[in-house]
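Support case: user asked for a sample of complex input and structure output to validate their parser. Sending the pair below.
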Amino acid sequence: MGYKFGYYMHGESVLHTLDPRVKIAALTVAGLAVLRADALAAAVITVLVAGAALIARLPATRLLDALKPMKIFFTLIFLLHLFFTEGRPLPLIPLISVEGLWNGLLFTWRFIFLIFSAAILTMTTRPSDLVSGLKWIFRPLKLFSLSSDDLAVMVAMTLRFVPALLQEIDQIKEAQMARGADFKRGSLTEKVKRISLLALPLVRNSILRAEEVAQGMEGRGYCLGESRTCIRELRATAKDFIFIVTLGTVLIFTEIIL
Amino acid sequence: MIKAENLAYSYADQSMPALKEINLAIEEGEYLAVVGPIGCGKTTLIKHFNALLTPTEGNVWVDGMNTKDASLAGEIRRRVGMVFQNPDNQIVGMTVEEDVAFGPENLRLPPAEIGQRVEAALEAVGMKNYARRRPHTLSGGEKRLLTIADILAMNPKYIVLDEPASSLDPSTRELVLALLRRLNNQGIAMIHITHHLEEITFADRVVVMDCGRIKESAGRARELLHGL
């Protein structure tokens, strides 16, 4: 199964042991900074993200894996900016403007680093800690009668069942290939038709499974709207405060934020 | 004691009742096996013991608590653990440890106690070293053991098992059955649904179901086999 993007990789680095709420906050700030970054900011963020990956000892190949599914999107973003931005023509290639080339590179970099930042978060945070962090962040939603416990369970269930659904797709695909279906050859229309052959049993099975999963959860005492406790308590430590202050200082002094 | 009195149940979309005139009492610490052909109402029956279904007619009592009283459902489900037929649909945690913690978390236990229960439950099923594994990387047998640990973490008095050894290889099947027997010896009552009589040779009592009714009730499986 090829699904490996963002899987938690156990480690003992500082990044692994930070409070998930701090990491989620850092990702949010990093995301905003990436979206409004100029050349200097891009350079600083590149160093920060690369530094984070090095500290967490995350293999570059696993981080690059995260980009693979998006490569067509990146190419499209780059080419659209390259050819459709007005400005001074590039020497020797008058079809392309200097601004087009710069924008193409900057926008592609932005999306790549958004994905890198998110991947570093999920690869250094246990899914349960991530969910606990989100649960804490969702708490104000109680004002709108939404239970943060239920939202956290929904996120956890999504993370739990994505690999299960991907496994199921493989099984359905293999069952259809065993009966002569060919998913590699044929025109685009034929390929789309074959995907629908995969989608129908998958949706049907998912609906049936949802009912059984719900019964299983109820059978273990889960009740919608009721509060729950958690096996791990979130506790911010001095390390978390030092991380926030350091990151904030770097971003403010390099004028990336504020 | 779990007691079904004149239990009848009909699904809303079916004209024929799924259960009719069921009278059954399961004592604490008993090993009860329920056998019968597919579609005879075995699963429908055991879902009543956990208050997942409530009777259309009659009553089901768990330690004196009527399953129709919705306010008691939480306590009933704590006492009666349910192991479903397909382990994939019972596992909800992102790791083995988190899956076992799901039940105690719903009971709102403090984190330290949840940790202790998770460790004890995983140890009981021989999966202590699997705590950080992701469920989809487990084998079928390991998933089955995990679903039993899920229930053990809730400290149940009764465990209801829907074909717990189906689709397991012979050695894993032996492992699961030995575990069930050991848990029963520790005082947990077992209600075990199966098609295979060889799985329930050590059951205290065997109930045979057919067309939504209890057709026969015997002592040990051997007695039932002699009667055939």
